[in-house]
Amino acid sequence: MKLKNRTILVTGGTSGIGFAFAKRFLDMGNTVIITGRSQQRIDQIVKNNPGLIGMAADVSDPKSVEQLSKELTIHYPKLDIIFNNAGIIHEFDLFDETITFEHITAEIATNLNGTIYITKALLPLLAKQQEAMIVNVSSLLANITVANAPTYSATKAGIHMFSDALREQIRAKGKNIHVMELCPPVISETNLTDTFDEGFMNKVISLPLAKLVKVGIKGMEKNKIRVNAGFTKVMRFSMKFAPDFITHTWGQMLLKSN
């Protein structure tokens, strides 16, 4: 797929992975719309990055997603790429009796439900285009859990399965919509790195954000089904042979590093 003169929506586009991809998409000659919960943050990003378009939206709220869909349909009817990136991570101890149900499911609402809501709301618009694409950002942690953030891994595994099912439904309908799952490892410039010991992260599992953008763009251009970036490729291969051993060893290592 050629990534020029496209109209691209990037959820969670005000920081981290989303912002980095949004800037690259813009540099490549595309119309780029970013979303985030904070209107103030969006205004600041747009002011500092001429050309970016900002729309405040909460992907975990169906009503907010519906409103976003209406605005995009009216103002950007040529939307042909969705980059589903919005996500949060919470560390917590399941044995901690002060942790609420709302806290342990917040990641489901944003990471998984948000991806599903945005996709469902905008599929009719994508289906009108000659060619379109949906990129769902999952994670290394879709393949193996991080014990300190148990719900996060569950949401990323859910995104993986949803992406596969979505791809097959699109194929059955005969629509020219590509679905790519982007699976980053730990990215050193994002908040997720707080979950890991810095020395371990830097030596073994991290990937610079610029490299993730490079391999992600290349995968999109080649209509890849899945892009396993950096250490994710190693872990995905290893899990084919000793999944239980690796899960236990990995989980205990991360718990001890915090």
UniProtKB/TrEMBL annotation:
The keyword Transmembrane does not apply. Pfam families: adh_short. GO terms for cellular component: membrane. GO terms for molecular function: oxidoreductase activity. SUPFAM superfamilies: NAD(P)-binding Rossmann-fold domains. Residues 6-189 form the Ketoreductase domain. Belongs to the short-chain dehydrogenases/reductases (SDR) family. This is Oxidoreductase. The lineage of its organism: Bacteria, Bacillati, Bacillota, Bacilli, Bacillales.
